[in-house]
Amino acid sequence: MPPATHWIVGPGAMGRLIALRLADQVPVTLIGRRRLPARQTLVTPEGDTRIAPLALERIDALPADIPTMVHLTTKAHGSEAAHAALAAALPDGVPLVLWQNGFACQPRLTEQHRGPVLCASTTEGAHVQGDDRVTHAGHGQTFLGALDGRHARLASSLAQTLSAAGLPAEAVDNIHVRLWRKLAVNAAINPLVAQFAIRNGQLRDRPFRPMVERLIAEVAATLTAEGITPPGGGGLEGWRKLVWQVVEATATNRASMLQDVQAGRLTEHEAILAPLLAAASRHRLSVPCLAWHLHDLRRRAAALAEPPAAC
């Protein structure tokens, strides 16, 4: 039997981290819109440097070989277009793994894809330092599962492969809840660090701490109405504990939304904040802080789309 082959579609920080880690275990092809240097450098959380060759292809010139599994690691707002570009090249039955933040594209792609779909919720941290270098900023944990609770054996097998590659992973039957929990943390942290251009740990101090607390309160009320509980339960206090634990653990990190703002890229605000606003609306809850941040990030996105003024 030929070895399992994995396509990683989306060569950003998370895509390259997964590709470089998995390459020690299985054949990997990294696929993007443009070719990157074949020799890629991974800087580990311990400060070690690993250089490895990767097979690289463009999404408009896909390899002829059929992959055993496809990992979609694009940003949430680019995931459906990337999947559409892949779909014609994939026979029915090839598993798809979605690594997007938020909770927007996952239900749609689960319905659209002609094969098993797993969702990943991860706290692994990474950032790009150039076309040939990515830093694994901090160890985390990845949870894998299908939204409908199926494909448990597939999720367990992939979790073993990722764990062996240095990305600890666990198959779960409640990935829906895990995605909402991560969304809650991102919603309480990312908009503020993006707005004020600060690292996560600075949220512990004034004037930012009260801002975080207001966002936590709105997130907690919304998710309680949705029937989503924080780890260990506890209502508002449970959500507060979860968010501040993440702030502490990622104190030196620059959140992905901040990285996108600083690079002039579109952020994942629609995938992270819009689902919360929709849920709040369903339950007739007032969430003015969440609404303001979504409006502000939409304003930034609109400005990115505007053509430059004539000289």
TrEMBL record:
Catalytic reaction(s) noted: (R)-pantoate + NADP(+) = 2-dehydropantoate + NADPH + H(+)
Pathway listed: Cofactor biosynthesis; (R)-pantothenate biosynthesis; (R)-pantoate from 3-methyl-2-oxobutanoate: step 2/2
EC number: 1.1.1.169
Keyword Ribosomal protein: no
Pfam families noted in UniProt: ApbA (PF02558), ApbA_C (PF08546)
Ketopantoate reductase C-terminal domain boundaries: 175-290
InterPro entries assigned to the protein according to its UniProt record, in alphabetical order: 6-PGluconate_DH-like_C_sf (IPR008927), 6PGD_dom2 (IPR013328), ApbA (IPR003710), Ketopantoate_reductase (IPR050838), KPA_reductase (IPR013752), KPR_N (IPR013332), NAD(P)-bd_dom_sf (IPR036291)
SUPFAM superfamilies registered for this protein in UniProt: 6-phosphogluconate dehydrogenase C-terminal domain-like (SSF48179), NAD(P)-binding Rossmann-fold domains (SSF51735)
Residue ranges occupied by any Ketopantoate reductase N-terminal domain in the UniProt entry: 8-148
Molecular function via GO: 2-dehydropantoate 2-reductase activity; NADP binding
Highest taxon of the lineage: Bacteria
GO term, biological process aspect, one: pantothenate biosynthetic process
Keywords of the record: NADP, Oxidoreductase, Pantothenate biosynthesis
GO cellular component: cytoplasm
Family membership noted in the UniProt record: Belongs to the ketopantoate reductase family.
Role: Catalyzes the NADPH-dependent reduction of ketopantoate into pantoic acid.
Protein's UniProt name: 2-dehydropantoate 2-reductase
Source organism per UniProt: Halomonas fontilapidosi
Taxon lineage: Bacteria, Pseudomonadati, Pseudomonadota, Gammaproteobacteria, Oceanospirillales
